[in-house]
Amino acid sequence: MKLKKILISQPEPVDLDKSPYKRLISDFKLDLTFYKFFEVVGISATEFRKSRIHISDYTAVIFNSKNSVDHFFRLTKELREVVPESMKYFCSTEAIALYLQNYIQYRKRKIFFGNQFFADLIDVMTKHRDEKYIFPCSDEKQTEYTKLLDKAKFKYTKAAMYRSVPRDLKKFSLDDYDMVALFSPIGVRSLLQNFPNVKESSVLVAAFGTSTHAALNAAGIKIAVAAPTKNSPSMAMAIENYMQGKQQEAVLVVKPSSLRSTKGTHSGKTTGTKKTKSVFASKTKYKQLMEEKKAKAAARRAERAAEKARKEAEAAKKKD
H/E element holding 308? Predict the structure, then answer.
């Protein structure tokens, strides 16, 4: 089936021209609509106190999103909790590690981060098993992240600091789109809440992540495009492969190397474990990266404006 319009259940990238979706727009002439299917609402300090979790009792924090960073430091401020100077921070990606600089200075504090998947962070954490971890997250009972932490047998406490609430999507009509792309179970819940008859519609569904796939399967909704796979690590690439008529691959399930088969090990040590990454990030570096992005975006806008003005001038000359 040839696609023309796709509804992407995420906010539009800050720099669309540099995002993977740009290729879908330019090469395949796709009309993409970006709209986040849910909003994140912080749990109040009063509600959090009922959990009897004291942040100062922990030696390390696990961050898997910028939302978790924002609400962790929001609550520490509202609760007047003092974060220990010795606290360690474990982030699923380097981008989240750099984002921490909005709240803390890193002169002597160690920050650790994974590569692309949460499973990568689990490998990093295996070298720090003595830490007492706190995991700021949403109020979902169990996620793919908590499942991995449980399997790896870490000493951690799940701290619900925010919740995801489905948004009103009534301004959209699924009949106007050929495909809708989903990235989380809450996105699936929002789709079902707003469009209870989605199974009867002709819209195709693309899904990213095993937890999203599980939510769709439980709802009885067929998945047309599944990611990530070996050759389609992103949703944009998965859609591109679908457009090119390539066969759907098996979904990639990333496991920490510490939880994989022990074949090829010696003396109980698993070979091939990725080297722990640590970063002593500087606020200057973060600001520099942000300024560079803003400057490039401004330059591109100026180029587009100049090109538009040139075309308008040419058109005006032709009329004269």
Answer: helix 283-319
